[in-house]
Amino acid sequence: MATNNSVPDHVQFAWNILGGDKGIASIMAGKIRVTLTEVAEAVGEYLESLGSVTFKIKQTLDADKFLQSRTGLWVDPNFDKLLGGKALKVKGSIRSSKWLRKKDSSYENIKGELPVEHTYEIGEFRPMIASAIDKQWGGKVGVLRNDGFGQVFHVWNEDHTACFAVRVRWDSDYREWVVDVFKPSNQFSAERWVFSRN
Fold this sequence. Notes:
27% of the residues lie in helices and 25% in strands. The protein has 7 helices and 8 strands; from the N terminus they run αααβαβαβαβαββββ. Strands 1, 2, 3, 4, 5, 6, 7 and 8 form an 8-stranded mixed sheet that branches. The protein is globular.
C-alpha cells in the first residue's frame, strides 16, 4: 500500500504498524502471528498521524554552505561532527509523513509506531531541511512548524553506525531557526511534530 492522499490516515497507520508490504507478507505466510489486540494496543499510544507533506528541494541551493550558523540560523556544532556526509543532488521533492507527539517520549518509545523505513539519509536530509528553512527564512509559514515547539527528524550518520534525532525549531526570541542534534535516547516533550521518511 503506497502512501497517498486517497488512503485514510488510520488505515495507513495500521498498515505501518503491521510492517507494510513486507510485514503483511510475513503474516500471510504464517511467519509472524499478530492478534488484533496487539495491533490495537500499539496504535496511537505516542503518536497521532497528521497526514503527509512534501518537502520541495531548491536545486540552486548549496545545502552544505547554507547549513552554517549565522544571523537567522544556529546549527549545532555537532551537526557536521556527528552526522557527517555531504548534500546529495535530490531532484524534485521528498514526501514525508507528519506526526504529533502525544506525550513525552524518546525515539525508543515511538519508533514502533512509525513506518518501517522512517529514517532519513544525511545526504538527502541536508538539501531537504536547507530548502525548507530557506523558504521559511525569518520564521515564515511553511511546511515546518514555526511556533516554537518545532519538529524532530531521525537521521542516519554518513556510515550508518548511528541514528540521531535532529530537532528543527523557530526561536522567536532570537529570530532564528535552530538545528540541534540529540541522541535517540533523548526525551522530547509532547506536542512536538515528528517527521518520517515514508
